[in-house]
Amino acid sequence: MRITAVWAAILPLIPATGHAREVIHKGDVVVVPLHGEVAPSLLAFLRRAVKTAESDEASAIIFEMNTWGGRLDAAADIVNALNQTKIPTYTFINTNAGSAGALIAIATQHIYMAPVSAIGAAAPILSTGEDLPATAKEKTISYWSALIRGSAIKNGHNPDVAEAFMNKDKEVKIGDRVVHPKGAILTLNAQEATERINDKPLLAEGIVDSIADLTKKAGLKGNIATVEPTGFEQIAFRITALAPLLLLGGILGAYLEFKIPGVTWPGIISAICFALFFLGHYLAGLAGWEVVALFVLGMVLVLIEILFFAHSTIVFGVVGVFLILASLLWTMIDRYPGQNFFPTGKMLAMPLLNMFIAIVGSFIIIALLARYLPRTSFYRRFALIDSNPPGPSLAGAPRQFATALALAPGMQGIAVTVLRPSGKARFADHVVDVVTEGEFIAPQTPVTVIQTDGMRVVVKSAE
Q1: Residue 429: exposed, middle, or buried by beta-carbon count in 10 A (0-12, 13-18, 19+)?
Q2: pLDDT, tens digit, for every residue of 380-418?
Q3: Which of 54, 99, 328, 446 is the most exposed place for a label (fewest CB within 10 A)?
Q4: What does the alpha-carbon distance between residue 81 and residue 97 come to, in Å, rounded to a whole number?
Q5: How far is 9 from 443, CA to CA, in rounded Å?
């Protein structure tokens, strides 16, 4: 199959350790750098790192952070991922945990800071740096205040401190002491964050110089293993973001491959689209090779149905289509270790939306192609015939000879070759080049002439 050929060409380009090139042993302490802008590409890397650490039974994860912030939507997904983590999580603020970085740090159970570092200033703003409109700002702060308070409580941090990072109207008061008056967004340096009030640190548990110093003060015993982002992860994000378009291209390419036999480029395009779809989700840590095997099995069953059981059974085709759809859907589902095998709720929302967009878009475009493609000069130029059976043909006959045969609408014949949509049909003692309006017709199927236009004969199934 062409898909197999495409995979054979792509696989040598993929590192053998595409999910994680690092070797992590049970009990190791995994260090994950979180540097630069908080964006979906950072989410893809972090998701892989967390899954790898959990799957290999690491004893803890340390996120080495240096970021000025970034997109709130990406931060929300990262916070959600960290709050699902089953092993202890630490943040080492190595200089900056600004804006969205502060929200991510709060989602870990332990926070340590470098001697010269800061955390806070997480008020939401527009991408241009301007304040949000009044109504939108009020709604955004209300939602995020609730989210960050819940995250802080879950991870053992002071929820008032966490909320004050983004809400200037929040006062932080511990006992009788007002730590932070309302009227300004809270930002803490290392000394302020580690100040002990009532024998408890305000936020951070200590000041450390390095990862090694952190593991010593936190009492972490395992060996340190660092998970570094791969060059493919930036590419993987872009591919996964284009999932609906890749699915649409794959489906349309497969359709055109069957409708224009002999023209190979639609099949090549289809194979490339599906290959990129699976490759992107594999590199993003969402799918393994088992979904590819499921997809290939479904394709094989569909081809068996088309080539051998076109009019006798639909079992192979139905099972094949089910396996194809299931593999495509399962590839897009973000499932973490320990979660239920069958996804529900938000895990299914985005994959189902992508699948819906691709399928509906495919149906619309295929309907248009089936109606108008056979009428185009482009199609007539590239549509090739599968076979050329012996016997007289009208393909190159003079016009008066075709007229003498009286191929008028309603005349009955039988398909000699596969019509998808072009091929040959026999009328009386003559084999004629015919075309359908997009319909797939198997050999030996009765056909009826519905239109003649010079040497062009349009037919449909008479069954």
Answers
A1: exposed
A2: 555 544 444 444 444 444 444 344 456 888 888 999 888
A3: 446
A4: 18
A5: 35
Q: How far apart are CA 225 and CA 213, in angstroms?
A: 15
CA distance 131 to 345: 33
pTM of this prediction? 0.54
- All CATH 2.40.50.140 domain ranges in the chain, comma separated: 386-461
Cα–Cα distance for residue pair 120/129, rounded to 1 Å: 17
Residue 196 has pLDDT above 80, yes or no: yes
CATH superfamily for 26-222 is 2-enoyl-CoA Hydratase; Chain A, domain 1 (3.90.226.10)
Q: How far, rounded to the nearest angstrom, does the alpha carbon of residue 337 sit from its chain's CA centroid? A: 19
Instruction: Tell me the two tokens of residue 411.
Output: 């005349």
Rounded CA separation 279/42 (Å): 18
User: Residue 72: enclosing H or E segment and its boundaries?
Assistant: helix 72-83
Amino acid 105 reads A
**Band (224; pLDDT cuts 50, 70, 90):** very high
Nearest CA among 434, 452, 443 for reference residue 395: 434
At 22-64, the pLDDT tens digits run: 578 899 999 999 988 787 667 778 888 898 899 899 999 999 9
Query: Does 349 score more than 50 pLDDT?
Result: yes
Partner residues linked to 91 by β-bridges: 63, 111
Contact 76, 39 (CB under 8 A): no
- Which tokens go with 395? 């393909």
Please name which of 235, 226, 304 lies closest in space to residue 20, comparing C-alpha atoms. Answer: 226
Backbone angles phi, psi at 287, to 5 degrees: -145, 155
Domain 386-461: assigned CATH number:
2.40.50.140
